[in-house]
Design a protein that fits this description.
This protein is mainly beta. Helix content is 13%, strand content 41%. The strands form two sheets. The chain has a six-stranded antiparallel barrel. The mean pLDDT is 91.
Length: 203
């Protein structure tokens, strides 16, 4: 479990296809503090397991599905990635509940500075607009953000200067793919309501 509060941006050192999995090597600093084998770290919002580490790098294995369905498959050496270690017992809950399981990739339609802030508009995969509500939560590349506008399968958020400074959104541009995780509580409610509507009525 994560909070969507990015701790640092790491840098891709290497990304290669091994015999059984893709091998991702990330240069990090804060994420290395007290790290252990088997720990969960969110990379651009995608929960991955630490398979090796040293004083400078962390290694992860990726399944083919993760490579195909998230923007991690589009990374190259030098790419900036958002890093967040899993929520610890007694830790601060600063954003919203983020599982690290990506629902799909969106495409950036608009990313521009307006005054002191930035305006970001994203096109979600078809049919996913139903998961979005005005003032609801959304995780974009693992960043906990508040939905400011919703129009069908398109939505927008506002980014304060700090978000642009400490996350990989400072490297993004129109046309880039971003990982999306919709609010977990909303998805549970949708599932429960769908089950009720499908239940047979008594005579």
């Amino acid at each position: 479990m994560f909070t969507g509060i990015i701790e640092e941006t790491g840098s891709v050192a290497s990304f290669t296809k091994g015999r059984n999995a893709w091998k991702l090597q990330i240069a990090a600093r804060l994420a290395l503090e007290a790290v252990s084998l088997g720990d969960s770290i969110a990379i651009n919002g995608c929960c991955l397991t630490v398979t090796a580490f040293d004083h400078e790098f962390i290694w992860f294995d990726l399944l083919e599905e993760t490579h195909r369905l998230t923007n991690i498959g589009k990374l190259a050496p030098g790419s900036a990635v958002n890093l967040e270690r899993s929520l610890r017992f007694g830790g601060k809950m600063g954003g919203h509940f983020v599982t690290g399981h990506i629902d799909g990739m969106g495409v950036i339609e608009v990313l521009e500075q307006r005054g002191n802030d930035h305006y970001l508009r994203v096109h979600t995969p078809p049919g996913n607009g139903r998961h979005l509500i005005h003032k609801g939560s959304i995780a974009i590349d693992g960043i906990s953000l508040t939905v400011a506008e919703v129009e069908g399968d398109h939505f927008a958020v506002w980014l304060i200067p700090t978000t642009m400074q400490v996350t990989n959104l400072r490297t993004r541009s129109v046309g880039d793919h971003v990982n999306l995780e919709f609010d977990m509580l909303g998805k549970y409610v949708e599932k429960l309501l769908a089950g009720r509507s499908a239940a047979p009525t008594s005579a």
